[in-house]
């Protein structure tokens, strides 16, 4: 959402603690990267990988990286520079070997993320009596 980057760290932490989030971890990671960039700017810090990790602090540990697919992890977090080399290697090992080594990140699915991710589409039908001549949000 537009205002997501404006929330404070405590609110961000509370959101990430929720097991009821119905969104993929890869999208959550993208959102916290955007938040960390905005926070760097608020604190007048250069927007670097190190500073993004620093402003995220313990919130980074609330991302459930093991729940991503190896492709999602490789295309996003692994290349972001936010994770340490050790964390990145540990997570790649988690994705590729059995038994799975401990990684230091939660691997318990969020309660609501059983089955398919859902997207809400508002205003799918536009009533002509409103006088709107555009298209719906499809």
Characterize this entry briefly.
The protein has 138 residues and is mainly alpha-helical.
Explain the overall architecture.
This protein is 41% helix and 0% strand. It contains 6 helices and no strands. The protein is globular. It starts with 8 loop residues before the first helix and ends in a 42-residue tail after the last helix. 17% of the residues are buried.
List key phrases describing it:
138 residues; mainly alpha; 41% helix; 6 helices; single chain; 0% strand; globular
Q: DSSP strand (E) fraction?
A: under 5%
The helix/strand class is mainly alpha
Over the alpha carbons, how many angstroms does the gyration radius reach? 18 Å
pLDDT average, as an integer?
A: 84
Oligomer state of the chains in this structure: single chain
Element pattern in H and E: HHHHHH
Q: How many strands, which pairing sense, and closed or not: the largest β-sheet?
A: none
Counting DSSP H or I runs of 4 or more residues, the number of helices is 6
Number of separate strands: 0
Uncertain segments are none
Task: Determine the fraction of residues in helical runs and give it as a percent range.
Answer: 40-55%
Overall geometry = globular
Question: Span between N and C termini?
Answer: 18 Å
Task: Give the SSE layout.
Layout: H1 9-17, H2 25-42, H3 49-56, H4 70-75, H5 77-80, H6 85-96
């Amino acid at each position: 959402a537009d205002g997501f980057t404006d929330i404070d760290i405590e609110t961000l932490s509370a959101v990430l603690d929720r097991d009821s989030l119905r969104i993929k971890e890869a999208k959550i990671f993208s959102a916290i990267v955007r938040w960390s960039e905005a926070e760097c700017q608020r604190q007048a810090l250069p927007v670097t990988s190190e500073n993004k990790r620093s402003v995220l602090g313990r919130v980074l540990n609330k991302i459930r990286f093991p729940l991503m697919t190896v492709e999602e992890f490789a295309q996003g977090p692994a290349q972001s520079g936010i994770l340490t080399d050790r964390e990145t290697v540990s997570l790649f090992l988690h994705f590729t070997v059995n038994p799975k080594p401990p990684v230091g990140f939660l691997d318990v699915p969020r309660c609501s993320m059983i089955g398919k991710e859902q997207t809400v589409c508002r205003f799918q039908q536009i009533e002509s009596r409103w006088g709107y001549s555009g298209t719906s949000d499809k």
